[in-house]
Specification:
With 80 residues, the chain is of the alpha+beta class. The chain has 2 helices and 4 strands; from the N terminus they run βαββαβ. The protein has a 4-stranded antiparallel sheet with strand order 2-3-1-4, with helices on one face. The longest helix is centred in the N-terminal third of the chain and has 13 residues. The relative contact order is 0.33.
């Protein structure tokens, strides 16, 4: 079993929550985790990016589809 993770970077919390909900509706096996990622030197929470982290141990998720999904909310998928 591998420890494959996908990280989707979104511009704000609302977008991250919407992406996580869309993933749940698509039936992802494990609950997506939301993580606030403050940019270096940023004090304002409004300037923070939000990450949606997905474990994909069986490698069932298509990276291109995840990238397209994040792109709908002006985000992207980080390459491992």
């Amino acid at each position: 079993m591998s420890d494959v993770r996908h990280v989707l970077v979104l511009p704000d919390r609302d977008a991250a929550q919407e992406v996580a909900q869309a993933l749940r509706e698509r039936g992802v096996a494990e609950e997506p985790q939301l993580v606030r990622d403050a940019l270096a030197g940023e004090d304002d929470a409004e300037d923070a990016q939000w990450l949606v982290v997905l474990r994909d141990e069986e490698e069932r998720l298509d990276p291109a589809e995840l990238d397209a999904l994040a792109g709908q909310w002006e985000g992207w998928r980080e390459e491992p």
